[in-house]
Amino acid sequence: MLSVINKTPFLLLFLWRRMRGIIPIPLRESIAKCAIEIIHAYNHRIGTRELTKFLERNKEELFVELAPGSRKLKNWICIGWGHEYPLDLRRKTPFKNDSVDRIYSSHVLEHFTPVELEGVLKECFRILRRDGTIEGALPNIRMKIEIYMNSKPIFIQGTANISDLSEIKCPSDVLSRQIYVEGQHHIFLDQDNITRHLMASGFSCVSSRKFDPAIDMKIREDESFYFVAKKE
Length: 232
Fold this sequence. Notes:
Blueprint: H1 2-6, H2 8-19, H3 25-57, E1 63-66, E2 77-79, E3 100-106, H4 114-127, E4 128-139, H5 141-150, H6 152-155, H7 171-180, H8 191-200, E5 204-208, E6 224-230
Parallel strand pairs: 1-2, 1-3, 3-4
Antiparallel strand pairs: 4-6, 5-6
Helix pairs in contact: 2-3, 5-7
């Protein structure tokens, strides 16, 4: 039975490639979402097992990065899809209560729905030590809105990072794409909004911060705003 479970992602991929052409599009999309969730659950189990082994032998300070894409901070434990510990950040992590010294995320939190974000931040609060901090960088949507309001012709130049230009008819189309990034972003966060979410999850002393070259990506400095919150 276990061998069948371990092969589940590969069996799903095989069936998907053989049958997707004959499945109606609405049903195809639902099946694809279910398959993705199964793969996330499978990877989360693997990541949890490997991270648990590491934590059992590690006695040093724990710095945890909620890592997107190929980003990886040196000497930090990177958790998230596509990393050494491919945890599903929406699920409970193997860290013990009050065991992590510092948490960092860069352009990650906006990829969750509001309900998912609430769970992610509460999990961060659970695993952080007292006086531990969570720091992050998020897209500066306010800046893009101000540019849109004050100089619409210039805003059209922002189409450089948009893959499909066929639907771009006016500056508001660009603004919509930059906020939601073709469906990848699920929540619009600014300093006020992230502060509210963090405090609702138990954090205090939430504030903005300056760009930190030790952890923040230089390439995203101009398009980001930065926050820090403390667990007391």
